[in-house]
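step 3/5: co-fold with thiamine diphosphate
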Amino acid sequence: MKAQADEFDIFSTMGDLAGKVEEGQGFDILEMYKTALTIRLFEEKVDWLFARGKLGGTTHLCIGQEAVAVGVMEALRPDDYIVSTHRGHGHLIARGAEITKIFSELLGKREGYCKGRGGTQHLSVMPLNFLGTNGITGGGLPIATGAGLSIKLSGEDRVAVCFFGEGASNQGTFHESLNMASAWDLPVVYVCENNMYAMSTRFTKVSRFDDVALRAAAFGIPSVIVDGMDVVKVAENARTMVHKVREGTGPVLIEAKTYRFCGHSKSDARVYRSREQESEWKDKDPLVKMEATLLEKISHGELEHVRRSVKSMIEDSYTEAERGADPDIKDAMEGVYAEREALIS
Amino acid sequence: MQKGKLSYRKAIYNALDHVMERDEKVVFMGEDITEYGGAFGVSSDLCRKHPGRVIATPISEGGFTGAAVGLSMTGYRVIIEIMFMDFITLAADQIINHAANVHYMYGGQVKCPLVIRTPAGGYRGYGPSHSKSMENFFMSVPGLKIVAPSTALDAYGCLVSAVYDNNPVLFVEHKLLYNIEEDAYPKRLEAIPLGKARVARAGADVTVVSHSYGVQLSMEAAKELEKEGVDVELIDIRTLKPLDMAAIEASVKKTGRLVYVEEGDTFGGIGSEVVSGIVERCLPYLDGRVLRVGKPEVPIPASMVAERFILPDTGRIKEAVKKSLSWK
Ligand SMILES: Cc1ncc(C[n+]2csc(CCOP(=O)(O)OP(=O)(O)O)c2C)c(N)n1
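step 4/5: write tokens
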């Protein structure tokens, strides 16, 4: 059954579903805060490591965008699939990936989730149904769509969640994927993290509109725009949308308005945006908002204790990862091809 | 046992039917492959035999190839049809950066059993965007296998193996091969392991190596050359990747001569790889010029006269074989 236009007004996507469905369902703000803080401190550590030349390649940090990853994951089950982007550390951590093994992967160690072969932009954790971060902008969109097709063919009530940036919505794969998902009623939750800039390119310079959600309307896909700096709003909207998708009404799109506080990748002087704009967004820091909520229930001392314990966990994880083994040459040549099945005739 | 002859088209159909029959986890996707039966009539009535698992896609090669990658990463074996090989350019990112990489780059956590079936080749006046043989474009993609069978039996056997391979396999068909037939319907259709060449014709004077439609052309040339007293050994390499260099090497050590025939570009072609491999392995055995027959560096013109002029034919193969008999 296709989603009906009267349930979700697909032609005016603006709006906030928070509280409309499953009202009164509480969230464990403290847990969500711990996860968001883990992401923040992990990313700060990665930044620090890059500045000191301890990591190769590049990295894309999600500082400022933590609430999106945390809020969306809150709405998911362990058997749901996730496809991520180049900016995927937050998604991994919110999904429950081990910090040590993520560090190991970034360090190119054998103990990494992908034996150090994937690194930051090609990191999958199959036991968590995390199908991978992705180095190709828009590359994950059809893969998530295929995971949705897989769920549908198997007759399961799982969902596939596809994170992507607003920049990726200008790739053909975005349009092809949304079209297939809506034509075939696939259980895919497209989550656009709209941080307004794709590297240096402001979305409004390469699109007529500010909102990616408007594009979903072209495919008859219900969408919602949420404040991506507010973890509760993200979680509530995600819950509602995921619930709809699980019922089998086809794909949805969630657009989270957010901002990356840091540069695009390790070297970025941020010449394309103003310091004023940055400080306006930093005033909406999702972690500060969570802290304010928490302080209504817990003391400053308790909050400080949480901060210290997350911080030391990150440090310990890094120390452990750094002690890991480098791959040997033999290992680097192995596994280009998977073993084949027994031949059948 | 079926009566009559087995065509290349029917062999591919039989292989698809067989693997879908046998395994509920096999899915087939592509444009116009349901009621319409496929642009070259290969899929025929498969959609009625395997309802729900033969999926007609929108014209979105990148999109549905990516969806096939997602499907195969989550437990399905997927066959996709790219209507003309030329259109594979639109799916290149998903094949090269995703399908071929996932097993290695994710540290062996996930497999991508995906067969990309596609008809290649010219001689039909379709012009530059519907005639190319592009298998050489994909030779340098680690993690991808490439198969290009030239007979109906090989088409059947290699396709079954390709589906049961746990890696992405580019399966190159040829438009002019669809109607060729085996002399008699075989008693039993068998899977053929990938990576094994086949001696299509035993001979003593010159080793001619080829794949796909080039094997048919080379066979005709060999028959004509026989009348002129030249005994050609024709090797059909069938699988381009992994390439059975041992079979080619054994033959060249016997004949001392080598000609590679392919429809795609000579420059950077499969022949370039085979010739370098032979030079590295058995230069002292060579007893004549080593030559390649292929397409010159020019788009394939629509005019069938011009096209015939550009693509390999038996005349050019015969000429090359004769030249290879000496160092002159
Ligand atoms: C196909 C492709 N083109 C370009 C790039 C280089 N690149 C990496 S990230 C990026 C910007 C992506 O923007 P968006 O999708 O909005 O995500 P964000 O970086 O804002 O999280 C670009 C252009 C790439 N990785 N892949």
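step 5/5: annotate
The first strand of chain B starts at residue 26 and ends at 30.
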